[in-house]
Specification:
The protein contains no helices and 28 strands. With 464 residues, it is mainly β. Strand 4 and strand 5 form a beta hairpin.
């Protein structure tokens, strides 16, 4: 393995110059309120991470949705992005976004936990600056604040940690949680004052929301998930706030929730004004919903609700290998003001075809999630056909990318074959509608549409 020689300062690498010009989807405005509008045109953009190809493809939102005609692919070979592409980097393993430099444009935040740095911890996090002309302002790379870390950049979020109105980065590695000051400078990274992650846990993901109440002055709670050394799921939490980080933390019992596949999302699925936590446990073919409010993350843990394919109104039936809960997403599909839940079941068999996969949309409402509809490649209007091992539903994402006021569903099929290229992967986008998604105008694309290599890359491993 070739190790990179990077100039280190307090364990981080410095900003590089350069830029990448992206096609604009419309007239840019430096006043977007959207965390994922990279060019400021008022539409949310879809970022697709393909770590086996060390690439992130950004597809621009527009009134007609997203597709190859309005997109660009970013790698570590892109001008202005630090580093060089190496097979083990896993650039794009996770992707998030936020206005890190405060210029009014969302920035692309990309994890590369497999990155190797000479005489330092493994892993990196790249922030590629958005702007009116696209990604033309270069990027900054972050490395672990301490040399004893591993797989820094496993996941990240960009929200207001301390409740002062300024958002900052929080990053997890395989073993640690890091947070940054309001400056968001790479050298200003800190560990919690009190360690709360069990020593035997390997972390895989991170999410955050204002579970105890939304609005200015309300703090975020961060949810970390992964697995214990014995393979059992781990889900922990830590409150942000103006005080010492780490003192207010705990663990949700792995017997009834958790994820070994990186599945967690947030949104208000019971319409009570509090964000709720949704986690997937693929090994248990289940999804758990935890109602936000004063009782979330307490000993009583009121408002817990388990959903399986044997639950009333949920399509299908629980079968070994379905992996229902391998991916989850939350968003308002029908525009009724209540968030809905999308659940990936990439091991699902359809019409006797093993492992072709499906995605299930569960309806949100005042009584929580109930009922649902299943979508797969034998659903009328969905591109493609059911084939063994397609794994449709390996990743799901809900967001309004066409400005229609309803969340659209993006679904990855990590095992999709494209021609003779096995497991090349593909992403399908279905538009939000009432009462459920519509397959009218559905679109599908794959790595070859963006110049990526074919076989084995599993295009769409991460979606933002």
């Amino acid at each position: 393995m070739r190790l990179k020689k990077l100039a280190m300062a307090a364990g981080v690498a410095a900003l590089t110059a350069g830029g990448l010009t992206l096609p604009l989807a419309g007239t840019a405005s430096a006043a977007t309120a959207l965390k994922d509008d990279f060019n400021g045109d008022g539409y949310r953009d879809l970022a697709i991470g393909t770590p086996k190809a060390n690439a992130v493809t950004v597809t621009f939102g527009s009134a007609s949705g997203v597709g190859p005609g309005k997109a660009v692919t970013i790698t570590q070979e892109t001008s202005g992005v630090p580093g060089a592409t190496e097979e083990e980097d896993e650039f794009g393993e996770n992707v998030t976004s936020g206005d890190v430099n405060g210029d009014g444009y969302a920035d692309l935040i990309v994890g590369a936990p497999g990155e190797r740095v000479t005489d330092w911890a493994s892993g990196s996090l790249n922030v590629v600056w958005g702007g009116a002309g696209g990604f033309t302002e270069g990027a900054t790379v972050y490395h672990a604040p301490s040399a004893d870390d591993e797989r820094f950049g496993e996941s990240a979020v960009f929200v207001d940690l301390d409740g002062d109105g300024h958002a900052q980065l929080a990053v997890v590695s395989a073993k640690k949680y890091w947070w940054y000051s309001d400056s968001n400078k790479p050298e200003d990274g800190y560990a919690p004052e009190v360690g709360f992650v069990p020593a035997d846990v390997t972390l895989e993901g991170l999410t955050a929301d204002q579970f105890h109440g939304k609005g200015v002055g309300k703090t975020y709670t961060y949810v970390l998930y992964g697995k214990h050394a014995d393979g059992s799921p781990y889900t922990g939490w830590v409150d942000g706030g103006p005080g010492d980080i780490g003192y207010r933390s705990g663990q949700i019992d792995g017997n009834f929730t958790g994820s070994t596949t990186g599945a967690a999302a947030t949104g208000d699925v019971n319409c009570d004004g509090y964000p709720d936590l949704v986690t997937g446990q693929a090994d248990g073919n289940s999804v758990w919903v935890f109602s936000g409010g004063s009782t979330i993350f307490t000993d009583e843990m009121e408002g817990m609700h388990k959903v399986t394919q044997d639950s009333e109104g949920v399509p299908g039936a629980t079968e070994a290998g379905d992996r229902f809960g391998a991916s989850v997403a939350v968003g308002d599909v029908d525009g009724d003001g209540c968030d809905d839940v999308a659940v990936g079941a990439p091991g699902e068999s359809v019409d006797g075809v093993w492992g072709t996969g499906s995605a299930v949309v569960l309806k949100g409402g005042t009584s929580g999630v109930s009922g649902g509809r299943s979508y797969h490649q034998e659903t009328s209007g969905v591109p493609g056909v059911a084939e063994t091992g397609d794994r449709f539903g390996s990743t799901v994402r809900l967001k309004d990318i066409n400005g229609g006021g309803r969340a659209d569903l993006s679904v990855a099929a990590s095992g999709e074959d494209i021609g003779s290229a096995a497991d090349a992967g593909a992403v399908t986008v279905l538009r939000g509608s009432s009462p459920y998604l519509t397959t009218s105008g559905a679109t599908s694309f794959n790595g070859s549409d963006f110049g990526l290599p074919g076989a084995g890359i599993s295009f769409g491993t991460s979606l933002r």
